[in-house]
């Protein structure tokens, strides 16, 4: 990488919502792989919440991306040859806002309007 | 559309997890647009759950896609010129499984392993 | 759907970029399913471009979402029990801009800066 | 991270297709931010291709995720307070396949069937 760019740091905080899909397993259920990934997330110490369509993780960019990469690695280690993940990633510099605060903010607006 | 394909029906059931982002508003917060969309979803009668990184909706393909399209339309009506949505969509023919059942299945595996 | 919302029309124009993944097939390659979907898209008459990480389709919201739903249906008809798609969807009201124009606009900025 | 997991390496190769959206800029066009990111990608030395709905990057997990994080950082440095990215990420252990090879494989199937 050229010198102008090499010094740019990745964000200190982000959230990632990801949904990992094992491909080519012959098994329609993905629950066992999702459970493996949940154990990894617990071990990571990063704040995370599973929902029915993915898992949201909060932390520094590098920590969060590392754990998602490890999730791919763990599923491969279990014999899955191809892993596909869809992610949403958000960063902001105006304020720190946790996942809970985001939901609460919307609920407040809805309550006010009722 | 050619006759071979015109008769193909869209799936009778699906889930969609979506995250809508208004673009070019000059407002860093998206909570007001998200609240508008939540009201639409309530009015739709479709089963839905908001989480910090999106909203999951369940129903027939046509009903779910229609309501997400209406969500874009409502946000445009509020003056937002550009709307960008990221979606995960899943369909399956082997069984009917609700959002709650998916999460429960993973939690059972985790509990068993502890 | 309540009367306030039932009359809201879905957008007249959108683009969708989607990546469809067959789940539980026992086959690591997804090329055959992708090819099936490309044939469907050709038959649809909608403008579309395949790239290495998905396919971009342009048209009205209803037409585009219908063809993606048909893509799920076709892959299910081929014996795949579960299909997972990741989509990006964009709509705008300020102007009509094709996929080619979007890329060209960025290339102009890059050329100007060199 | 607990010792069992700390040693797990992220994948040596992956592709990421990402679409970055600046939020709260008051500017409907995102072309200027996309151009900034393209310059960063050129400087990174990683193989990448821009299309109308995103950019595909190939490389090791850590290199690719680092450059996407730097893309967020660069857009923030330009004064954008919130950045939202949608990503598709794929890894496989059965073979090495470039972005070009993936498209070619599908085109071969389509040509054979015509």
TrEMBL record, chains A, B, C, D:
GO cellular component, as recorded: cytosol
Domain Thiamine-binding protein: 16-107
Coiled coil: none
Domain of life: Eukaryota
InterPro entries given in the database record: MTH1187/YkoF-like, Thiamine_BP, UPF0045_domain
NCBIfam families associated with the record: MTH1187 family thiamine-binding protein (TIGR00106)
Family: Belongs to the UPF0045 family.
Protein name: YkoF-like protein
Organism, scientific name: Lasiosphaeria miniovina
Classification of source organism: Eukaryota, Fungi, Dikarya, Ascomycota, Pezizomycotina
């Amino acid at each position: 990488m050229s010198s102008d760019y090499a010094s740019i740091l990745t964000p200190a905080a982000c959230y990632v919502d990801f949904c990992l899909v094992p491909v080519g397993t012959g098994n329609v259920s993905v629950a066992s792989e999702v459970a493996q990934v949940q154990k990894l997330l617990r071990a990571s110490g990063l704040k995370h919440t599973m929902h029915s369509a993915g898992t949201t993780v909060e932390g520094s960019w590098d920590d969060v991306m590392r754990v998602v990469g490890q999730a791919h690695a763990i599923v491969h280690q279990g014999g899955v040859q191809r892993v596909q993940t869809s992610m949403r990633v958000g960063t902001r510099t105006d304020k720190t806002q946790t996942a809970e605060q985001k939901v609460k903010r919307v609920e407040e607006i809805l309550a006010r309007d009722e």
